[in-house]
Write a structure and sequence with these properties.
- By secondary structure, the protein is an alpha+beta fold.
- It folds into two domains: 5-64 and 146-172, no CATH class; 73-123, Orthogonal Bundle (DNA Binding (I), subunit A), CATH 1.10.30.
- It is 17% helix and 25% strand.
- It has four helices and six strands.
- The protein has helices spanning 21-29, 73-79, 117-123, 150-156; strands spanning 5-9, 15-20, 33-45, 48-58, 93-97, 112-116.
- The strands form two sheets. Strands 2-1-4-3 form a four-stranded mixed sheet, with helices on one face. The chain has a two-stranded antiparallel sheet with strand order 5-6.
- The longest helix is centred in the N-terminal third of the chain and has 9 residues, at 21-29.
């Protein structure tokens, strides 16, 4: 079975998670979830043939504590849409402290950006002004994305079949809805 991701919704249609096909089918077969939308592609199991789900909804409300968005390399890369914040490149990415640590620059959302190695070497231990470089946009902590990690949210917003169920955050450059 190829890797297939399924959007898992809470009973109130709030996004809970993105899970694999096996987990989604297990929840449906155990009566814990229902299929909201399928892909139109059939798959076979020992117990029969099924439509591959794209979106499933839990039958009961799952109570979860409000999660916090963690500062991590993956979250910074996802926030910056996997592009260098100086030149726009999407290759050979790393992180850069806008104000270098040795000058007292903090390790925070507002001071970390995605940067390609070439720009990182050019900027070195200077501020962008000293290196004569300009940021494409000011870094800041993203608004919280309910339940989905930032990386999963960034991947999910590109799926047309999931768009209706995901909250819209303008800061992530949502596709224009026609």
């Amino acid at each position: 079975m190829a890797k297939h991701e399924v959007l898992l919704l809470n009973a109130n249609y709030e996004p809970l998670n993105v899970c694999n096909l096996r987990r989604a089918v297990t929840l449906v077969l155990l009566g814990k979830a229902e299929v909201i939308q399928d892909t139109g592609i059939d798959f076979r199991t020992p117990s029969g043939e099924f439509q591959t789900p794209s979106i499933v909804r839990m039958i009961y409300q799952v109570r979860r504590p409000i999660p916090r968005l963690r500062l991590s390399r993956h979250s910074i890369l996802a926030r910056d849409n996997y592009t260098c914040q100086y030149c726009g490149s999407g290759r050979d990415l790393t992180l850069d402290h806008v104000i270098p640590r040795w000058v007292g620059g903090p390790h925070t959302w507002e001071n970390l950006v995605t940067c390609c190695r070439k720009c990182n070497l050019k900027k070195a231990d200077k501020t962008p002004q000293q290196a004569n470089m300009k940021l494409k946009k000011q870094p800041r902590q993203p608004h919280y994305v309910p339940y989905l990690s930032l990386q999963k949210y960034m991947a999910a917003i590109d799926r047309d079949d999931w768009a209706f169920y995901l909250p819209i955050f303008k800061e992530f450059g949502q596709k224009a809805v026609s």
